[in-house]
Amino acid sequence: MKAPMLAVKDLRVAYGGIQAVKGIDFEVGTGETVCLIGANGAGKTSTLKALARMLPASGSILYRGGDISHCPPHALIGQGLTLVPEGRGVFARLSVEENLDMGAYHRAAAADIADDLARVYQLLPRLKERRTQLAGTLSGGEQQMLALGRALMARPQLLLLDEPSMGLAPLMVRKVFEVVHSIAEQGVSILLVEQNARLALTVSARGYVMESGLITLADRADRLLGDSRVRQAYLGGE
Amino acid sequence: MKPLANLLPHPLPPAAAYGGAALAALALAAVPFVLGMNFGNSWVRIVDFALLYAMLALGLNIVVGFAGLLDLGYIAFYAVGAYLYALLASPQFGLHWPLWAILPLGATCAAAFGVLLGAPTLRLRGDYLAIVTLGFGEIIRIFLNNLNAPVNITNGPQGIANIDSMSVAGHALEKPLVVFGFPIPSLYLFYYLFLALAVLTMFICIRLEDSRIGRAWVAIREDEIAAKACGINTRNIKLLAFAMGASFGGVAGGLFAGFQQFVSPESFGLLESIMVLCMVVLGGMGHIPGVVLGALLLAILPEALRYAARPAQMWLFGRMLLDPEALRMLLFGGALIAVMLFRPAGLWPSAVRRREFAASGNGT
After folding, report:
1. Would you tell me which residues 128-147 of chain A have a C-beta closer than 8 angstroms to some C-beta of chain B?
2. pTM
3. Does residue B89 sit in helix, strand or coil?
4. Are B141 and B257 in the same domain?
5. Which ipTM value was assigned to this complex?
């Protein structure tokens, strides 16, 4: 494994008295795609939100060697760490293009932004067709594509993806994962949180299995795909 | 001239835009003369108040329309501005500060109160925020009502009277201004002052909407988590919305105090807050020209109904069946319901809102 892009140690998240994440360690290497799989309520989204500094958490979060556990959430995007929130979170009453522009909100250079917009449209031609349409009127899959495109406008180095397959038709899920895969091929590190374990493991190099706030398994993705416990619990295994 | 052009459906060539603006200015300048000569000066006074309401509605529109934060206590900022003027320019403390000093101070002071309201409510949205802001509005009013003991500051429920009138360029607006031997009545002078400030407010709002801050407000309104993920400092931007909105309210309040020359807590009740909110919603939330239209209509319509109720009944029934005062609120309520049923996006919504409501109407 290359030098870690993200190294998390003893991360804990609590809502009131309830511990959602009970001290987990994991790493994402530079240019690596890693997934965090597990059932509903395992603490995956809480983990991701804690990394994006949207939930108070304890433990250390080293991002590119620096501790970001006291960094305000809005400052992360400038350092190349971008979250694609659960449930897409597009700006429904803005047009597709305005949504993409918001992704580059923290950047000043207009020429670079225009370049990036062209690149996003090349990767996601459907968005270009619908650029003047309101984001709220797009289909679920298109909204997910838009959320990914908006994140790319920030020129991320580490992308945190929260359940990109949620609520999508199977065909659309596959398309979304193709896009995720091509983003990874451009060298962006990705931490993917998913319930669709099979697809998540196919696009990832490594995976972590989370169960009620703890990481119970960590291995290479192909080994996890073959692991009998994973097959039984998450892959509807035989 | 980009902001002006934005108000129009098609961008006009500069000559036409300037020509149109000159015509509009001439028409607006003629309004008090036309009204005053045909319907009497009480109508000029109504229009003066309507312009104050337009400023209030534009301020509230920043909070409710742009940033999507429901504020039911907005009139408190109007009260802050009004009482500040009353205390600094009246025999109450023997202070007689000039208008140009009080208005910016009123804006700043109201903005500070805006932050005071915003800071503890940052995590609240929708109904919960509405309840807290409602409480805030009432707290301010009750404070003003009770700050006559142990030390008398506000005179309590009696209010502050004999407030100085406003002076602009050395001329007290309470006296007619004689131009080439032709006297311009005091009410007309207030109209011009309020019109100038309302236009300025509108201009600032249009520029804000187009700015980075405006885009951040809209992003927060649409999805706060996504806005944070886009690198928006949601805390500061929300506080800024409260502060900016409040500062317009503070300026309008100062003008109100100098115009009425009397303030008392009962001018700043919950009904006033709701009235301003109605102006914003009915006109077209988030759409500046719509909000101004809503303010002017809602400020003028109840008065028009008051004047129309008697002759209409005499004509219909030959005698007075209902007290005009009761009838006017009934008709007013009916008009509100009708507008919301038939134009749910408001009377003059932005193109985006219109499309959205049209789409949901088709069941898509």
Report:
1. 134, 136-137, 147
2. 0.89
3. strand
4. yes
5. 0.90
